[in-house]
Amino acid sequence: MADSNPEEHCGIGIRGVAIGIDSFVWIALLFVSILVAGVFTGQVETSAQGLNTDLEEGSASMALGLWLVLALGYHTVMEWQFGKTIGKALVNIRVTSTGGAGLTLGTASIRNVLRLVDWFPGLYLVGVVGIAVSDRQQRLGDRLAGTTVVSA
């Protein structure tokens, strides 16, 4: 009997590979955030070895906050516009609504803000458990946004 929904829901393994690839983007965004905070606070020094930014207290918090916004923004905009991040594209998976349509800015935002909860207490433990116990292999962010990750 043919399956009326040929899209295969993606599990922990392939999604883990995608997030591992995306972590390289996060690292690049972290460097950008540190540099911007250093320039903004005047804590950037140039030398023969390159740029040095020695952030302290408030400026370090600023860099962390900027990085968080950029990282969540990266996921939100990429999934809203393309249905996938760079990591998802490289492993051939994408995010859709549970009905199969593309994401709206609202659903992409909900899904990705809740990424912070799915991360707890570390290494996506809440998200991994959510995927493991879900019929559609959805983490908490997917469930509340009405999204799922499928093979592209």
Rounded average pLDDT = 93
The unreliable regions are none
Assign the structural class, choosing from mainly alpha, mainly beta, alpha/beta, alpha+beta, or little secondary structure: mainly alpha
Helix-strand sequence = HEEHHEHHHHE
Topology:
Elements: H1 12-41, E1 44-47, E2 50-53, H2 57-82, H3 86-90, E3 93-97, H4 105-113, H5 115-119, H6 125-133, H7 140-145, E4 147-151
Antiparallel strand pairs: 1-2, 3-4
Helix pairs in contact: 1-2, 2-4
Written account of the structure:
This protein has 152 residues and is mainly alpha-helical. It has helices at 12-41, 57-82, 86-90, 105-113, 115-119, 125-133, 140-145, and strands at 44-47, 50-53, 93-97, 147-151. The two termini are 22 Å apart.
